[in-house]
């Protein structure tokens, strides 16, 4: 799908998309097109009794007379048309025309009169919506491809300020590419994307100027990462720790921001084996690592003025003769011992060592970990918010605000000693599970035991948002959502670039 910006014109073939504001007011370009069609567009809107210009409403006019377009789509813009609304609008059109046989789409949408929304920004966000919804993961389909594959080849966004649009688009496009990468990683089947293959794909990002280092099991053993290594020891596939660094700040010695991701390439549960139905989809248990990788790609591609480090712990949680047993005690890199009572509570074991490594090696400004950590977070928050936990109110507030702006909402949940008690072990420093209640908080409490003194830290439990089985999110067609790339990028852009 080719995206480009051009001066406003109603002269395009293919689908022409025009805006109608809330209350049914035609935008200037829509008025021009109506005139060219001899009033056919206004008649079509009048004939469609329910159309009032609300967001999401569309009237489609096929083969309009007086216009070159094969079809015109009049779309509702509502009354508060902003960046998020523009993205949703463009995405809904791409969704509607995805397999309709249309090859070219032209958006000719003006900003509503008096709107603060500048024409360049409007155009860039239309392009963003089109690109995000235009994603496809189709490598493994050999039959009936035209039923699923899009026919859309080009999307042109008309704008009175192409220079501003292109400039903004360069940054948004970098983020979109990061989201595409995260989606690809989540969507890949686990026989293809095992830890070493994930590491190879991360390594390939060196071409963007990221420094990528891969640690294997021998190196992690030397570092004392018994907690992470225990999870992978029942797998034929070697565990990996990938460290991605982007040094974009003017001061190369400034403390970096740090992101840590859970990368369980497949979570069978280990010897605490998951039932069959719960195991389906566990290829996506590396969604946190995918988000971190996608975010690092985005920062590098848009040359963000920040020092950032992304660390991902990649393992496969499998049950074989060498697998970790429930009752095992492992020693983490921090020196703390863990009684592993359930091998399916493995994400926290991976993150523990990845967190210690990140903090000790990089002394970051803050560390944020992302993980598809608990089924319980879906009981609490469903699929519309990620769970946020933090020891730092300012960092938590900044993440929440960035989440709102980026369309990736988070909801903060509490931490406290009363929950921490639940992971006391009879024989070790802690156990890896609590009781039946507050499963997501208990998991966060476990992670907090690996946060070093004075370190600002936040944890995002993304088990409910990393992939989607049912209803499609407006900007995401696929299974893997790529959740997290945008909020991390937004957080950096809002507060940590100089
Ligand atoms: N990867 C799962 C969490 C998960 C479940 C993510 C469903 C997405 C969808 C995690 O490793 C896990 O198995 N957690 C257990 C923890 C329990 C054993 C304390 C869970 O949530 O049941
Ligand atoms: Mn598990
Ligand atoms: Zn897991």
Summarize the structure.
The chain is α/β, with parallel strands linked by helices.
Distance from first to last alpha carbon:
34 Å
CATH fold category name of the largest domain: Aminopeptidase
Bound small molecules, deduplicated: ligand BES, manganese (II) ion, zinc ion
Radius of gyration: 24 Å
CATH homology-level superfamily of the largest domain: Zn peptidases
> Which second-level CATH architecture of the largest domain applies?
3-Layer(aba) Sandwich
Count of structural domains: 2
Notes on the structure:
The structure is a single chain. By secondary structure, the protein is of the alpha/beta class. It folds into two domains: 2-160, Leucine Aminopeptidase, subunit E, domain 1; 175-495, Aminopeptidase. It has helices at 28-36, 40-47, 83-97, 119-133, 145-148, 162-187, 195-203, 217-222, 226-232, 276-279, 287-301, 347-362, 376-381, 393-406, 417-420, 439-448, 485-495, and strands at 2-6, 15-21, 25-26, 58-62, 71-78, 104-108, 154-158, 211-215, 240-247, 257-267, 307-317, 328-331, 337-340, 366-371, 386-390, 410-412, 430-431, 456-461. It has an eight-stranded mixed beta sheet with strand order 8-9-11-10-14-18-15-16, sandwiched between helices. The mean pLDDT is 97. Residues 267, 285, 342, 344-347, 372-376, 433, 439, 463 line the site of ligand BES.
